[in-house]
Amino acid sequence: MNSAAVNTQFEANAPDVRLSIWREHLKLLVIASAIILALLWRDAWDMMATWWDISTYNHCLLIVPILYWLVQQRSDELKKIAPQIWTPGLLWVGIASIGWLLGEAAGVSFARQLGLIMMLQGAAITLLGPKVSRGLVFPLFYSFFLVPFGEELVPFLQTITAKMSMVFLDWAAIPAFIDGVFISTPTGYFEVAEACSGVKFLIAMIAYGALVSNVCFQSWKRRLLFMLAAMVMPILANGIRAFGTIYIAHHTSTDFASGFDHIFYGWFFFAFVLVLVMAIGWPFFDRKIDEKMIEGEAINALEFRKSKLTPKYAIVVLLAIVTTPFLWTSILASQSSQVPENIALPEVAGWEIVSYDPAFSWKPRFDGANHSLLGRYRNASTGQNVDLAISVFDQQEDGREIVGYGQGAFDPESDWSWSRDLPAPVGATALQITAPGPVTRDVLSFYRIGNKLTGSGTAVKLETLKMKLLGGNQQAVAVLVSAEKTDDRDQRQAIDQFLSDLGPIDKLADEMAGLR
Predict the structure, then answer these.
(1) Does residue 338 form part of some domain?
(2) In terms of C-beta density within 10 A (0-12 exposed, 13-18 middle, 19 or more buried), how is residue 260 classed?
(3) Residue 358 sits in the same domain as residue 498
(4) The pLDDT of residue 61 is above 70
């Protein structure tokens, strides 16, 4: 048989050969993905529970079917590409494993869940190769939207929405006064609460904008402009929504405005914004409906250095990288530090402990603490009251973090709401919270981890990370000093005087943790 006939026969059998290779590599990918999910089932489960339970992330439930659809869009062209092992993909798995390890040590669920998604991405890149990965580059990285994110934006979005509302109220000639995220008008007192921050719609619009940018545009300039519109329009729309609610309440009643807000703005207004964004972008779509998303033959013609690893060795190395941080954290989890069996509120010179009787019930939230104390002190000279709260942890783990969502100066499920950040002394953070009434309260928070006293949540996470990875005392202590405004006197002055008389916070925290 001559060479021409051999080449013709090979070309005729090429699709069958590629199909056989695809089956082998997909089988390995399924095995690797199943093992990763089995090892990190807790993070996968927590992530799915977040999609289902928290309305901000309900849109994530649609991401999985969207990913399937994006792959199906490319399936015919992907069949023209031969999978291969690609060793550089292991680097992505390694980065993901390190990220997961840091998240596990610091108690940051976002880092763990991001690491999980990146491990799955890295498995696909390693076991399917650079050509297939190039064909799947958008679906692979669109999977980042499976990771819940954006809660950190809530205070910023609350503030922006409140300030925009004030601008619109000024234009409407409605007298108003703003105090943090609270707005007073002659007819009512309004709060730009977390649920009104617009974070839900913003996050969903970012995911939607990325999808439309890939499917409907080819020009990167047009994609970026559409993404900008998808991010700006929800923020602007939410400011109009908040203003509209206050405007309607001003001319009708607060109850009517609240009901109108939930029915009209909650369902129709943002749907209108979505349609508006699409209508603006529609004339600029530059991808035809029947146009291929990728060119399989062109991608398959690309040359990449072949890996020396066989498929079986590749999956062994991949799984070794994944399991190493898991085993390391399992060993570290066996370490613990002891705390006293009982603790008591300290005696403070010039102050007496009195019955705790706040104008509006307040209690900081520290789930999983070994000990929690809350007491009221009265200044013998001025008669002002200051509240002291102390929470002690022997160690931090999932569900028992001293810093995290829902933990801290107030319970987000209570009637207390963040109002504004306040100036704080070194080693602390300060904020003002407000309850119905309104009742305002200033709270200073101190955290003691290892040898560090800080008010920064980031610093707490970093110090916790260091202690868990390098060893050391695992105890963590939160000390909160607070005062509510009950008269014309400055509650911050009372707090500062109490702190001066209390003495070093780090010394108090160490005593509570049994380190002195």
Answers:
(1) no
(2) middle
(3) yes
(4) yes
